[in-house]
């Protein structure tokens, strides 16, 4: 424990125990008289937290309450979150974090993380020195330009790195002292936000071009100098920038893009698991994507790798993947095909989305559009017409942007759909059966990958690691969960999942020659001992 005494100790969020300080500790640390008489244990503190939170009238008020708890008592926040993960994760992250980002400047209480602006050019390395902790292993960074399905929110997007860091800590046991959320606040082209009198960000149009790229370069170089063991997770960058930075840095340093690679791995895992329900072979699936952004492009690339690993050639794997855009099915004769999906533009007559399902007969339909209702009744019924058990994955979040709801998917498929989504949905009763739709949450993937990179000290983060993460996640789904229609395990087991993924990542790092020091033979125990457990 830091040498803090009295009120300074009580006010330090990383070290306070509040009313849980024992009588001996109250004497030792100068706390007598600063706390009520009764010494309470962690369970009673959690009960008080949950009671107060549940009395809040709406989710955004619960978000504010939980964020305030994090700012005053980290151990209590994370213990409560871990023990009640199904209730609290949707409040800390999706879907509530979308609303929190829109309101970020209006609900701001205390600063968390680092803000870097164009005015810091040439001084980013010294700016990083202002962060109090020195052994940083995980950095989540955004520039706020493509927050969830909400678009350019500027510095209000800081809610995303803050939330992702909370998931790293709660879901994979990364120590809070090893993490930083960072906002590259390079302005915003959202005039309404920029002109909001309460807006806290850099109040200018968004930096672009070489000036923007060079600022990100300086940031990345400063991180490598200041925190040589750190992994950088790029989050919610505009699609062209997301792929540009991933290509630019991934072969040189520890980094990945969660929207591209994390989303790809969690989706691949869901497809793997769906095969246990549909009784189809993964290598024989035909998969159709609605949307051609960073998420869909990343999923297709990892699917390619997985299909090739299952025995297909690249050409055969390409033939299994199809894209639909605003103008309908993307085919070789389509105009203005994005480079990202050009290899998946097949020789086929141009047609509508609905007609494409009837013609291509996809086994799996994946939505990554950010547009609500794009999987309408006609689409879902057409999928059910060409499949006994249609697999429908509606990835877009927050919930208001999802392609279809769980209720719609089950009703329109007469209860035959295998459904997963990017946002959480409650259980659905249909036809005398209760379905428990699974959320394809990236939190199943990126915390475990980060823990594995930290544990192995791998020099790079590779696609093979995400492939291993997807396989590990799919293998954790129980038969009971399968029977309820879930293609992902219960969130209550997410630390177990992250541990398994971390071990798999260590093995990939070892096999790929990405580590400099030998790892212990007992990887399970080694990784377990690294995981932060928030008890007093």
Provide a brief overview of the structure:
This protein has 536 residues and is of the alpha/beta class.
Descriptive notes:
The chain has 536 residues and is an alpha/beta fold. Among the domains are: 110-253, Rossmann fold (3-Layer(aba) Sandwich), CATH 3.40.50; 263-443, 3-Layer(aba) Sandwich (Rossmann fold). It has 24 helices and 14 strands. The chain has a seven-stranded mixed β-sheet with strand order 8-7-6-9-10-11-14, sandwiched between helices. A five-stranded parallel β-sheet has the order 1-3-2-4-5, with helices on both faces. The relative contact order is 0.10.
Roughly how many Å apart are the termini?
11 Å
How many DSSP helices?
Answer: 24
The CATH C-level class name of the domain at 263-443: Alpha Beta
- Please outline the major beta sheet: 7 strands, mixed
CATH superfamily of the domain at 263-443: NAD(P)-binding Rossmann-like Domain
- Based on secondary structure, the structural category is alpha/beta
Number of strands: 14
CATH architectural type of the domain at 263-443: 3-Layer(aba) Sandwich
> What fold name stands as the CATH topology of the domain at 263-443?
Rossmann fold
Average predicted confidence as pLDDT: 96
